[in-house]
Amino acid sequence: MHGGEVWAQSEGRGKGSEFVIRLPCLLQLSSAHAACRIDPKLSENSLSILVVDDNRDAAQSLSLLLSSEGHTVWLAYDGYQALQVALNKLPEVVLLDIGLPGMDGYAVAQSLRQHSEMKMTSSDRPEWLWPSGRS
Q1: Is residue 32 part of a domain?
Q2: Which of 26, 43, 74, 95 could be 70's S-S partner, Cβ–Cβ 3.0 to 4.6 Å?
Q3: If we measure between CA atoms, which residue out of 105, 79, 110, 74 comes closest to residue 92?
């Protein structure tokens, strides 16, 4: 169906098995995928966004969605990496998971507030939203 190969090999009981799947590479994007792409230059309201989540699948899925809408997106998978990327790239929006291992999202947000590079004028300052009424 895909022009690939599948085979299995074993040296016998208790010696493990090897399964090999080979699929050919696509030479070009499918027309459906190409049709979904939006040139970021065409979007007047594009933002620079940092997505922080230790669940890599969730972070990458959200990144793909935001990028397809014309936004510039950076990814971080833990709190320390989030600080490094945020202070280097200075995103306009940070989508921050609270339940990160090591340095949690609360500590990351608190640390980002301490850096003058991340501060905005009072009229531009975003609201910080905390679950359970925490501020």
Answers
A1: no
A2: 43
A3: 74
Instruction: Determine the structural domain holding residue 83 and report its residue range.
Output: 40-133
Torsion of CA 11, 12, 18, 19, to 10 degrees: 130
CA–CA gap between residue 78 and residue 41 (Å, rounded): 30
50 neighbors 95 (Cβ within 8 angstroms): yes
Q: Burial of 79 by CB count in 10 Å (0-12 exposed, 13-18 middle, 19+ buried)?
A: buried
DSSP state of 128: P
Digit-coded pLDDT (tens) for 24-36 = 775 554 444 444 4
Handedness of CA 51, 53, 57, 62 (dihedral sign): negative
DSSP state letter for 52: E
CATH number at residue 126: 3.40.50.2300
**Matching residue, tokens 């929006």:** 93
Q: Which residues contact 22 (CB under 8 A, 6 or more apart)?
A: 4, 5, 6
Mean pLDDT of the chain: 78
120, part of any domain: yes
